[in-house]
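Reference record
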Amino acid sequence: MLSGILLIFLPLVLGYLIPIKKTNIIEFINTQTSRLVLVILALMGLSLAGLDNLSQNLGQILLYTFTFFISISICNLLALPWLDRLWPTPTSHIHKKLPLTKMMLESGKLVGVVTLGLIIGLLLNVDLSWVEQASEHILLLLLFFVGIQLRNSGMTLRQIILNKKGVIIAAVILVTSLLGGIIAALLLGIPINNGLAMASGFGWYSLAGILIGDGLGSVYGGAAFLNELLREMLALIMIPLLINRYPNTAIGYAGATAMDFTLPVIQNCGGIRCVPIAIVSGFILSMLVPILILFFLSL
């Protein structure tokens, strides 16, 4: 784990303080961020290969994954439909062809990178003690880029405050996810703060897996990654099926990905009126992911 929680916050805050006007610089940062994520996920696979009793640890990873996924999903999906009843959102019934296969392949690529790192680590059978330190240094650079991305995402504080529905959806996801994390922690017999950290990914599987893996080890990191990945994949399936009848539920369950990865699906299936709500909700949750995870890990 990094020497202090402030050391992790510092690059995130510094990045957020940097406004960028030039599109080519933003595109460069986006590209480098994607590459850094792949590098860290590969290192995550290597760290898994270095675990003692790997088969037993894999079983523990899957147990943690499904316990958190089921607990958090149930809490989210019990609360979100009430928003649709109390505060309906109008949608468009025009459906377009969706690039779902391409999106699934993108998610699969990230799983493949972790798997490749695991296989390489097992085959090489070399000292992997350097992996943790390398991951920490790359993580600092990644958080700096994430801060820049959040600052230059196009959302202003005024736009966020004025879209009350997006704020409320994000608040419901926040509260119910943390409740699900507490339930999962009690079921698994692990510290509550670890459960709260695990519940604070909101679908951002790459960053959640990296931060939690750095703070709690490879078992937790692998479980966090898979938990959030399952959330995103379920969201991709649920959005076309639910958004016309339960738009708030579909947008909310997408979590942090509602502002980027699942946004095209939300727009194509629900119409343009759903887009501002999704962007605001997703932006708030994206902002909270590193803040909450690092906070709960520091307790």
Q: What stands out?
A: The chain has a mean pLDDT of 84. The two ends are 13 Å apart (CA to CA).
